[in-house]
Amino acid sequence: METAQPATVPAQPAAYEPTDRTVPTRAAHKASYDREVVHSILDEGYVCHLGFVRDGAPVVLPTLYGRVGEVLYLHGSTGSRPLRMTGQTDPGLPVCVTVTHVDGLVLARSAFHHSVNYRSVVVHGTAHQVTDPEEKRLALDALVDHVVPGRSADSRPADKKELAATAVIRLDLAEVSAKTRTGGALDEPEDLDLPYWAGVLPLRRGYDAPIPNDDLPADVAVPSYLGTR
């Protein structure tokens, strides 16, 4: 995805700096701070989970997002509580954002060692509401293109009323980590001769054939970027 930052910004380091919040307490060997790994996991997802504290209790909400360079943009209604909490008069909202892909189901000989192969990213930081009109339009284009690349140029942009009804929050990618699991089941040596199948059931995702809207004119062709894959 294209970066919104000017060309004069110095090149980013190859990895994010680990912090107390991004170093896992379990299976630390599965963690990565590589910038390209983090970006690839974020760019492949559709939905993130936004965690924050409201009235002293934790809340986690699923929402769409888009990445522009070293920034995540999340959107919602202007009436949404977390988006109101990131308003310009506030110091921002401390949040935790996660994205996870499940790549395979790992079946072991023992119930204890069943697992999943996955790729995940956790982002900690302070979210702020986007108020600059140009940045807001850039963010909304990024959100649309994140779901279907090229779609923002192939649809009507939001008008003033729609922009006023839509809030966007910005979260800088600074305190970030990725974590992954790959490979097969890790059974105990004494279980290897048990007569139970062990291995990985891979999962995949892709497009099926597009289903046109009932009110779509017959002469409107399916865009090439919606081809099955």
Description:
The chain has 229 residues and is of the alpha+beta class. The protein has one domain (28-226): Electron Transport, Fmn-binding Protein, Chain A (Pnp Oxidase, Chain A, Roll). It contains four helices and nine strands. Strands 2-3-4-7-6-5 form a six-stranded antiparallel barrel. A hairpin with a 2-residue loop joins strand 2 (47-54) and strand 3. The longest helix is centred in the middle third of the chain and has 15 residues, at 133-147.
Q: What's the SSE blueprint?
A:
Blueprint lengths: L30 E2 L2 H10 L2 E8 L2 E12 L2 E7 L3 H4 L8 E15 L7 E15 L3 H15 L12 H5 L1 E7 L2 E7 L17 E4 L27
Antiparallel strand pairs: 1-8, 2-3, 2-5, 3-4, 4-7, 5-6, 5-9, 6-7, 6-8
